[in-house]
Amino acid sequence: MSVPTSVVGFPRIGSDRELKKSIEGYWRGKHGIEDVKATAKLLRERHWKIQQQAGISLIPSNDFSYYDQMLDTAILLGVVPQRYKRLSLDAEDTLFAMGRGYQGDKGDVTALPMKKWFTTNYHYLVPEIDDSVSISLSSDKPFEEFTEAKALGITTKPVLIGPYTFLKLARRPEGAPLAIDRGLIEQTAKAYADVLERFAGLGVDWVQFDEPYLVLDKERGDLELFKSLYTKILPHRKSTNGTVRLLLQTYFGHVRDSYETLGLLGFDGLGLDFVEGRNENLAALEEFGVSENTTIFAGVVNGRNIWRNDYAVSLGVLDAVRKVTDRVAVSTASSLLHVPFSVAREDGLDAEVRRHFAFAVEKLDEIGELAELVQDNDEERKSSKALADNQALFDGHRVKADAAVSKRIAGLSEGEFNRKPARSERQRLQREELHLPLLPTTTIGSFPQTKEVRAERARLRHGEISQDDYDAFIRSQIDDVLSKQEAIGLDVLVHGEFERNDMVEYFGQNLNGFLFTKNAWVQSYGTRCVKPPIVWSDVSRAQPITVAWSAYAQSRTDRVVKGMLTGPVTILNWSWPREDITHEQQTTQLALAIRDEVLDLEAAGIKVIQIDEAALREKLPLRRSDWHKEYLDWAIPAFRLVHSGVKAGTQIHTHMCYSEFNDIIRDIDAMDADVISFEASRSDLTVLDAIQEAHFETEAGPGVYDIHSPRIPSQQEIEDRIGDILAKMDKASVWINPDCGLKTRGNAETWPSLEHMVAAAKAVRERLER
Ligand code: GLN
Ligand code: ZN
């Protein structure tokens, strides 16, 4: 019997981002929802067939989504807050209203809050359970998609976010914590039981429930909650028409602390991550064994890197698992949602380079090859060409080390990780230097990247215009955005970031050591995709990157212009990192490169420099016990290394795209920036309590309106928000800014929103100064 293979989830956006284009076309009124549905159907068919042709035995369905799988789960369970129901939109528009807000003739509502999905750069929508909600099975989506595949002759494995993860991530209105009481547990368990029965009736063989929340540290009552949900759900695998098998899928870490409980519940399959949780999951398996009716789905093919799988390592794991049980399936370690579609189209990369990469499609082949190799005996493995070819990728050194970089790192002293003088002294000097009013207003850096800007960049790329033409065009954009910012009265101006396509790729292009792809897009949130660059070898700065643009902007206005950089931790977290040296080593190399840029900006007369660490929290280990030793202890010093060389009067800002830093607030303060801006309007404001309690010293601008939504906030709304902020923070340390950069927005909504923001700040400022 051959070893079964399984895929946890497949990218849904399409090899050419067809889904994104179709949905955005619908939003712009270019075509109707029927067009979107047709595109979606086509993509599902294509993706199932690719997996079928690769010989995958358990192909996922319901991993497709128009916007987000958490949002789909909420809708499936009837978790639609009253304010969206009241709009009386049809199904898809309700979904989009929850995802991105709605402003139109039916009403005006904000979107659900959005958070990062565990340690990925994917954002999910946070389900909100208000008093109008009673949980019950409320949509046919998973069943329809199973039937759709069945009609194509493919029996899929439907995939759902499991009840435990769903409830742990759901919130009450305003982001208040959800009390998971008996009633809620009963309702939720019943809804999932109904799902299983429906599937059993449809002739489904395997169903997969994703429970990634299991890899987190447990709080009191967590395991009891898990048990009480599943003891109610599991008996419903049988219906009069048949029986389904339930695969409990975990990923992004290990489940050592719950493994025994999982074993006792009697799942038919247990999906374990042997990439990120390798040692602990193996140890648990060896300690507690596996019950004879359970199949272990061994996640050995990384779902979130782009490098080829090291078969020797994976076979080591698979052999170890097979010592414990012979019921094994070879699987991805997580959904492939987090990797690009296929390497095949990256013809811009050398074949010699390309052979080191595996995107979603290539990972399917890796699963297949591993499933064959695992059954081979030593002799067969020795003569296997697949294995030999794979080994060749890992033998010897892929790239040569850069001696200058190693030397510079070896020579770093403690002082270079600490800025002098102390913050209070710097704040005094900076006040004298910058003459800013109370509640200074600013933006996060980028302004709308209009079609015109992107078209001009494309023309340069295609050689249709010269570099000089392009530079002149960017200068005219800068002039325009500066005069508009002056006109509405912003205090600290920005040059608008028109020269950059992306805050990470742009820097990568000016650093040694990076590679770029043409088409390696990965979904970030909703229809937004990102195309991370690849760290290929040692990193250093090739030439000044932003200096000319910032200096030009500063020469065109009397107000302060903020220089705009991306920090080392974010560059690494939003790139595909190397696997042959540590993240710490790569981040330190990046920190030195950006440090060079900071010092050059200062020398060019830039007095305020923002170093974005939008993704600092992203790779914070999921388990608290690993936070410092595995991450913060080097990530925070790396940030300080970037700015420790500037003069006391130079103001260093940083920015983060979320506000969940209550629990790392001291580490954020220890970055020793002078000012931080962060996303706050779509999330609860408990961060303000944390700032107050921790006596946070960094001046802060909690975003006063949501830039992920096209709606225009009113002046009053923003004044209210500022009021909330001032209730918790000292007015002398408050900055007023939007949540994030404006590049994804249009000018039509950006300028009125900013006008309202500046007017709100002025009104509050006048009241405070009266
Ligand atoms: N400076 C960047 C911008 O304004 C920051 C973007 C981000 O935080 N994601 O676009
Ligand atoms: Zn941001």
Description:
The chain is of the alpha/beta class. It has two domains: 5-394, TIM Barrel, CATH 3.20.20; 444-769, TIM Barrel, CATH 3.20.20.210. The chain is 43% helix and 13% strand. The protein is built from 29 helices and 24 strands. The strands form seven sheets. The chain has an eight-stranded parallel beta sheet. It has a six-stranded parallel beta sheet with strand order 15-20-21-22-23-24. Strands 3-4 form a two-stranded antiparallel ribbon. Strand 9 and strand 10 (242-243) form a beta hairpin. Helix 19 runs antiparallel to helix 20 (467-488). The chain starts with a strand and ends with a helix. Bound molecules: glutamine and zinc ion. Glutamine is lined by residues 444-446, 497, 503, 564, 612, 614, 655, 657, 740-741, 743.
Write the layout of secondary structure elements.
Layout: E1 5-6, H1 18-27, H2 33-53, E2 60-61, H3 69-76, H4 82-85, H5 91-100, E3 102-104, E4 107-109, E5 114-116, E6 123-125, H6 141-151, E7 157-161, H7 163-169, H8 182-202, E8 206-210, H9 222-233, E9 238-239, E10 242-243, E11 245-249, H10 259-265, E12 269-273, H11 278-288, E13 295-301, H12 311-324, E14 328-332, H13 351-354, H14 360-373, H15 378-382, H16 385-394, H17 403-410, H18 423-434, H19 451-461, H20 467-488, E15 492-493, H21 505-509, E16 511-515, E17 522-525, E18 528-530, E19 534-541, H22 547-555, E20 560-566, H23 568-573, H24 583-603, E21 608-612, H25 627-643, E22 651-656, H26 665-669, E23 675-678, H27 686-693, E24 699-702, H28 715-728, H29 747-769
Parallel strand pairs: 1-14, 2-7, 7-8, 8-11, 11-12, 12-13, 13-14, 15-20, 20-21, 21-22, 22-23, 23-24
Antiparallel strand pairs: 3-4, 5-6, 9-10, 16-19, 17-18
Bound molecules: glutamine (GLN) and zinc ion.
